[in-house]
Fold these 4 entries.
Entry 1:
Amino acid sequence: MFRTWKVMRFCATADISARFYRHFSVCGNAQQKCFPPLFVPRGFRPAGAEMPEQSQPAPVTDVVKREFVECGAEDELLNNRKSIPNLKVSELLKAVPRSKLKRERTSWDELSESTTKPTHKKTPIEKDTLQMLQHRYQDTRESEERYDKQLKVRYTILQSNDDRHRDLMMLVGSRKYREREKQLVLEGRRLIMDGYAAGLRLEAIVTSDLKLLADLKFKHKKQSCPIFLVKRQIMMEWSSLTTSPGLIGIFAEPSNRAELASRNAAKSKRLPVTVVCDNIREPNNLGSIIRSCAAVSVQEVILLKGCAHPWDLKCLRGGAGAHFRVPIYGPMEAYQLPDHTRTGSIFVVADNKKPTDERNGFRWKHYDQIDYGSADHVVLVIGGETYGVSEDIRSFIHQLTQTGEEGGIQDRKFVAHIPLANGIESLNTASALSVVLYEMRRSLLQMEDNS
């Protein structure tokens, strides 16, 4: 309807006589019989079809020009379709200038749009993100070395176009790159100090504020390792935490981690306990488990396939330096488990999934009623919070204990149950392990005192 009104207005203002062969009126049927070629669908009109004679158009006035500019591409198609045989929309649109496809905006349109369209104010997070995107690959400045008189350290202001900037970014973001370069990344003042106290060699320090270096109290001077100063936005991008502590330490990976852990735990007496982790997928939970094992001073920690990687950044932070004080092996396959167990060991599975669970020959008991001193060594198996210890591990433990039971050693497989109240179904994996480990410690130390 709107397009028909435009055509009528065009005829009234131009004051010309034009013959229309297609009307939106009652006489459309009669004209269809008189002029059949015009009512053939577009694209199917024969090339040699005779067209009716058209009257010569009158001179176009200024008013007609103004109305023609206001007309869009669809109106131009309507005006030209009578004189073009085999009309195709795609071919005609190629010849239409782009300026005619948009109507010229008046001052009133600009005023109304400016008043109705709200202006978006960027939040601080959006501003930081925009700065991070802008400074990357656009900074043409070179890195500069400076000296701080107050801290008495020499540092380097690292720019994004420096090769060392790229290496540090790959080192922080890729675990495979760290394993290839044989380096460890520790984030935060406390974790850096724990790694340094454990005997790791510090190779570089990355910070976003030089004042944070005063909190690092090393025995030797900080000048022995390079110090890089980066922008706060880069540190936020590299950090694995929500709030970046502003300090990252790059350490050399020890050649023998088990020897390093044994040397750090030489003063504490180790319990004859091996902790086996089955399907612990959360890095924070695995870090807390390793921390509890180091606090109780177990013999070793074994990770089976399916667990999170022990040297993941989140796992390292959850361990709080415990990775350097207890031997960690794996992740490994289940068939490699006998290489780290001793003959005659008892196996304890910490699982609260089913009450009185005695599948595969396991005896169900409360965690404080198991005789942990009945064998020379204890193997404690703990699983994830969702699925617990898998059936494959239970079957494998059952096969390991078959030969020992024939020799007269009974009750080598137990399911440790932790009683809970208030309708709580289970504890966190690290919390349940801590409860069982400290009961083992109390029972074993009490047995040694009595003997």
Note: The CA atoms of residues 244 and 320 lie 16 Å apart.
Entry 2:
Amino acid sequence: MTNSTHQPSSGGIKVESNGVNAVPESERYGRPSGLFPIWFSWNVSILGMTYGIYVYSLGLSVWQSITAGIVGYLLSCCLVGVLAVGGPRTGLPTLTQTRFCFGYHGNKFPTLFAYISNMGWKITIITLASSTGAALFTKLWPAAFALADGKPTLVCILGWFIVSLALTMSVAIYGHQLIMKVEKYIAWLTGFMSIIFIFLMLPHIHWDKLGQSAVHGDLLTYIGGVVMAMTMVGLGFLNYGGDFARYLPKKTQASKVIFWTTTGISLPVSILLVLGAFLADSNPDLSAAAAQSPIASLTNLLPFWFYVPFSIVIIVSLLAAAITGVYSSGLALLALGIPASRATTTTLNAAIIGFGAFYLMFISDSFLATFQSFLASISVVIGSAGAIQLIDFLRQKRLGWDVAMANKAGFGGRDGRWTALLALGVATFVGLGTITSGDPYIAHVVGFLLTEETRHSVFATANLGVIVSMLTGGVIYSLLTFGLKIELPGISSTQARSAPPVKTQKAV
């Protein structure tokens, strides 16, 4: 792959020039501890409380919910950290490095699903940020921004929608350097305000009722809680760990990359999960309301002096997640082979997110439930691809992390590696056949391997099929690659070795 020799400017922050090419060693900087704020600011959100409520709702005790959730977070976030190690070793975004495993063109299948999943969550995040800002204005200036029923006016919602989208795009389009600086300050701000929020929520927990419930889940239910926690947090980040680690020096210690990535994601959501589980166990009415409308139901409990600044912090934390997501989505489009710069793909992503969020807020009444079901379905592909890539790391390390493997056949890579694609295909079939969906239309294409009794079990409701698919893909690929020794090395002809390497996309 071609490497840029562009030296980073010593002046002010400029638009990032690197796209899906390998970042040259001359442009590497930073320490692995810098990964902590990027992930912390993304995940320190009031929504983390509802995750604890969801795990508890499976039929676990409060202490089972807490331990199952934390175990699930640590397992899935550690996987993200391991995949992030590929960033400094190759200088490539994760969805470009997966070409090593699936081949140049074969990689487009998992990349497409990863892109769709990322965009779906960003649409939801922009929607939440806009609605939170509109709710804040209706309380501050009801005469100007509230309707007779107390809901925000169309102008108020539309205004916040435009502001949220513009702020997200403005930072994301500049790229890695600005994002790393901005997210560091956001992490401090959101972390400090979240501590105050936690203390203000403690009086709403009925401590005398805590742990009094007779509910106690069996082993399968507990495993279901672990899996649910994994799917809610870590597994959604599998394809983006290397995007923010690739600017670290190549010799950066792997254990530190894994530690700071894992901690940055799991620490905030674990603390908030404990609070959510306590709330669900001792105050069922409030927990039920939070499950339906997490931000509104929980912020309404706050004193007005804190409600205003904390609402702003909620908006900031949501936009922090949107910024990093838009950045990674732009890299995903480049990995798909879209002939455009990273700045252009970021702009395209902003337009798609804007349209989706606009549809969600102003047109659809039921789109959210359908879309969330769809995201749960495609997580089967994402999780399976991540598991296969993790197994392939052993081969990539043995080959010296050669970035030429991300090229087309003839230039050090392959157009497709049938071993990885076969494993992904079988895993996807098994995964879709063993999960269920609350959407009546999507339900027709999933769960076809389940019996009628199993469809209503914890196995189905907790989407254990996602883990089954990951294990299936990993085992099949391991057997083919290391058992049968079908490694399929890159293809380099004599003519190709003397020819220039494949041109890679950069943001210029």
Note: Residues 1-10, 494-508 have pLDDT under 50 and may be disordered.
Entry 3:
Amino acid sequence: MGLEGKETSSFMKDFVDKCGGYAVIDGGFATELERHGADLNDPLWSAKCLISSPHLVRRVHLDYLDAGANIIITASYQATIQGFEAKGIAREEGEILLRKSVEIAREAREIYYDRCTKDFSDFMRDERYRRRPILIAASVGSYGAYLADGSEYIGDYGDAVTVQTLKDFHRERIKILVDVGADLIAFETIPNKLEAKAYAELLAEEGIETPAWFSFTCKDETKVVSGDSIFECASIADSCRQVVAVGVNCTAPRFIHGLISSITKATSKPVLVYPNSGETYIAESNQWVKSSGIAENDFVPYIGNWHDAGASLFGGCCRTTPNTIRGIAEAICGKLQDK
């Protein structure tokens, strides 16, 4: 889609307006791949399926489209040239796999639209879902995701990692995802302001015109996991011309309302939220464990409150499912009908 001469700043606002004032992002990806039989015990995580099981990647995209998603995020979160090379995959093949992540998502969108046109099932006859606008967001995971040591959940890369280190690491990957024609770039699970600064500088230096969003992972209502303030991080995103939405992902639902309030103080750009299920990731054991306190698996009832606080794009992250996304889509549809 690209910008096609439009002002970058209006890209996401216009899209959300076309969706009716709210837009639905998809949900957890790795969890769904595993549910369909994929073994993701690998440093490449969900990106492993780009090599071994592209049909499962397409299937998960379709599951989320069937559930009502307006934005599907590619399986490239953990896909990096450096990560592929560490697995013995040649650079050229790594570039092909990165492009493939976008191509598979685009195929899924075309299959879905074709089903809608043919009135494939009773579900597709529901006017809420037919031929709605759908964007492909190319996922760019943080440097910590490449390290595969859970450091994207603490945001401490050590003193040796600078803005320049991060720009050099991400540069080629971003250019490949842009060149293959993603509708937007989703910079996800950003754990510190250092990486946000690197992304903003990189977008400017490379003259990238594809819209982007910055989504941070946070440890409470005011701070990203590194301890940097979400206000400062959102301000960096706000100052970047290519950034069309700012928000949080892979963050406990109980912090979302406060984070939205903090973000809206820093930017007037659309705010997106796609929290995890409320569980905590333990890097040493590669497991998600239940957090203390109330169960938070079902955050769908809070969507209306989060919208009132200033958010307009809603989805789920780790451990959420197509059922979560279907619940969000139905809750939003109910809100629109109440207007």
Note: The CA atoms of residues 62 and 112 lie 7 Å apart.
Entry 4:
Amino acid sequence: MITLTRKKKESSSNSIADSTKRISIREFLLVKEVQELEQNLPSTCKISFQDPNVLSDFTLVISPNEGFWQGGRFKFSIHVPEEYNMAPPKVKCLTKLWHPNISVEGDICLSLLRLNSIDGLGWAPTRRLKDVIWGLNSLFTDLLNFDDPLNIEAAEQYSKDKDKFQAKVREYVSAYARR
């Protein structure tokens, strides 16, 4: 895993002529947060980095062990923008699934991923990557509020006929989210 000291050395050796070049706030925060995150992940989550030197792009896999999506393996891409921590990470679900808060195209409705949220639970500079991971994980366990769903058809099916909803979820898990 990359460390801040190593990152600083790389930065200074790459820019001896440019002594004003410094590690970005994002990089500084990511080194600390990723180390903390790797120690405090929910048991149903796993993160991986395509390039261990690039902490701003990684993959999250959630494998729920209970609920409607149990037995599935759901992959998310997470990109942390340069404006982090003033702006939230960009998250996309790469696994096709049937969920009221995740569109079939992979867009996600989760308050803490919004810069401005009407419920007051949106992104704030005090939030961290672990909040995002735990929030995404909760989408598979906490079916409490579908007042503002992204997938309206799934939300309506859930409220009208939970058995049909569960059958469709199982169909999607079997087709797209096998472990």
Note: Residues 25-177 form a domain with the Ubiquitin Conjugating Enzyme fold (CATH 3.10.110.10).
